[in-house]
Amino acid sequence: MSVVLRLAESVPGARLLGLGSFQPDRVVTNDELAARVDTNDEWIRSRVGIESRRIADKDTMLVDMASDAGALAVKDSGLEPSDIGAVIVATCTMIDNIPNAAAQVAHRIGIPTPAAFDLNTACSGFAYGLAVAADLVRGGTVRHVLVIGAEKLSDWMDWDDRATCIIFADGAGAAVVGPAPDAESVGVGPVAWGSAGDQSQTIRINPDTRALHQEGQAVFRWATTRVAPVALRAVELAGLTPADIDVLVPHQANLRIVEAVAKRLHAKGARDDLRVADDIIHSGNTSSASIPLALDHMRAQGRLRSGDTMLLVGFGAGLSYAAQVVVCP
Asked: What's the CA angle centered on 190, arms 7 and 116, to 5 degrees?
């Protein structure tokens, strides 16, 4: 005798309900780094577009930053911690693999008994986490998901390596994902994602120094040619055109890469008034935290408004990439 299994009741789709972010207080300028390694302010600005970045002190843990950002996102959503059914922390910089960050973060925020797991696709982590969260909500598995991108890259830096120490920084950003009551309210589009494992060694942890190593030129060439097509595919999957996009938020890896992606979108019909995230200037590259940090900062600056159609594009180590169209809460 066969049985018929009952599935959870699905909903039309998912949408963002709230945003939050956290950065350490300490600002590290280019001049401060130039006192240690062979570089200068003009060189850093011209190569990667960074003027300053935030670095956490040794007593501030990744879980601390993730909890602060997550709590702010839950508050912004208008929900109670008890309304959250799952917590996803996208990160590649936990010092210890066990216990995971997500369960600790949920406990600190006061979220009782959620599903809780970490996700590591490095700089594309938030976009991956958002895609997983949207499908969990759409499938009826949970009603509300807290997605956090959090990194303490300073724990993995060789501060004498000019190629990396000028780029990476610390911080966390978060979003709450919930159900869309009808098809017209869907606010998270389909994900366009993938990987390029043949490029996996371009960003890695050096087995001898246990520090982050990056082959900058190889990553730059890959990103400036491969990222824009992924972004355009996400627009297509959402049933839109580049002219429908109000805000472009690529991973804040390098200002020149951000500008190259925007240029490709303009060539395909994006509007002249497209707003492009440039959070890297004062935040540096915060890996999986960079997209939600940029979203929260742009909103605070008045450059992002409720109802705006946003194109999010994450890419990084793996190499992995993901993009989706999202409506601002």
From this structure: 55
**Model pTM?**
0.97
Report CA torsion sign: 225, 227, 231, 237: positive
Q: Name the pLDDT band for 1 (thresholds 50, 70, 90).
A: low
40-73 pLDDT tens trace: 999 999 999 999 999 999 999 999 999 999 999 9
116 neighbors 87 (Cβ within 8 angstroms): yes
Check 92, 165, 285, 328 and give the catalytic one. Answer: 285
- Of the CA atoms within 13 Å of residue 241, those in its CB half-sphere come to 7
Residue from 327, 261, 251, 324 nearest 92 by CA: 251
Residue 1, token pair as written in the block: 């005798």
Per the annotation, the verdict on 328 as an active-site residue is no
Facing residues of 136 across strands?
none
pLDDT of residue 216: 87
- The SS3 of residue 22 is strand
100 is catalytic: no
Return the DSSP state at 123: G
At 219 the three-state DSSP class reads helix
Tell the residue number behind the tokens 């709450």, with chain if given.
176
Interatomic CA distance for residues 222 and 240, integer angstroms? 26
Determine whether 285 is an active site residue: yes
Choice among 30, 92, 165, 251 that is catalytic:
251
Q: How confident is the model at residue 234 (pLDDT cuts 50, 70, 90)?
A: very high
Cα distances (Å, whole numbers) of residue 210 to 100, 207, 223, 253: 20, 5, 25, 21
114 CA to centre of own chain: 22
pLDDT of residue 251: 98
Q: What are the b/e assignments for 196-230, b being 16+ CB within 10 Å?
A: eeebeebbeeeeeeebbbbebeebbebbbeebbeb
Say how far apart CA 38 and CA 33 lie, in whole Å. Answer: 9
The catalytic position among 30, 100, 123, 297 is 123
Complete DSSP assignment for 231-260: HHHHHHHTT--GGG-SEEEE--S-HHHHHH
